[in-house]
Write a structure and sequence with these properties.
It contains 4 helices and 9 strands, in the order E-H-E-E-H-E-E-H-E-E-H-E-E. The protein is an alpha+beta fold. The chain folds into 2 domains: about 70 residues, Alpha-Beta Plaits (2-Layer Sandwich), CATH 3.30.70; about 90 residues, no CATH class. The strands form 3 sheets. It has a 4-stranded antiparallel beta sheet. A hairpin with a 7-residue loop joins strand 2 and strand 3. It is elongated, with a radius of gyration of 23 Å.
């Protein structure tokens, strides 16, 4: 029985957001690859709109040059995972359909539109992963002792940001509503009730 040949080590090169990936790769390819000597080999590129990064096999010299290069944000060793399923969140008419918060955490650059009430921001995420699966998120919010309600709707709003099926960050997380009272100077002094949210999504 033949021994499997180990795959060469690969690294993910995350470029800074304002770096032109095509020009960066052309520069390194021209600088280090000579004739049949392939010491800078790019094996995969992501769409820069999703993540400005690529994967490749590099010699020790090239890898060190990449680490020192001002266009490189960071480098990590590649590992085998499933394929990405990039979902571009749109409404039924094909328009951007995310709130300011989702779009802001989705990118490093500040958004041009600063109106947090708008719901027409772009948002892309990896649909192959169930974000938040197996995670419990406790939503603590103030209410009255003798009422089983969400005072002012604030707790519901926060729950939607955390794990709402449409605009939530961790869409597959389990929400647990916690009713609290006795708040003094912002310090929680008593937890009145704890139960799974009746309609977490």
């Amino acid at each position: 029985m033949s021994t499997p040949i180990p795959r060469p080590a690969q690294h993910i090169i995350k470029l800074k957001d304002d770096t032109d990936m095509q020009k960066h790769i052309q520069t390194f390819n021209g600088r280090y690859n000579r004739g049949n000597q392939l010491v800078y080999k790019v094996t995969h590129r992501w769409n820069p709109e999703f993540v400005n990064a690529y994967v490749g096999e590099f010699s020790a010299e090239v890898l060190q040059a990449l680490k020192d290069h001002p266009e490189v944000d960071y480098i990590s060793e590649n590992s085998e995972i499933g394929d990405f399923d990039v979902i571009d969140q749109k409404d039924n008419n094909g328009n951007n359909n995310a709130g300011w918060g989702l779009s802001r955490i989705n990118q490093a650059k500040p958004l041009d539109d600063t109106d947090s009430d708008d719901i027409n921001f772009p948002y892309k995420y990896d649909g192959s992963l169930e974000a938040g699966v197996g995670v419990d998120i406790y939503i603590l919010d103030k209410t009255n002792d003798d009422k089983d309600d969400d005072e002012g709707g604030h707790g519901t709003h926060v729950a939607g940001i955390a794990a709402g099926s449409r605009w939530g960050v961790a869409k597959a997380a389990n929400l647990i509503a916690v009713k609290v009272s006795g708040l003094k100077h912002g310090i929680l002094t008593r937890v009145c009730d704890q139960r799974p949210a009746s309609n977490p999504k």
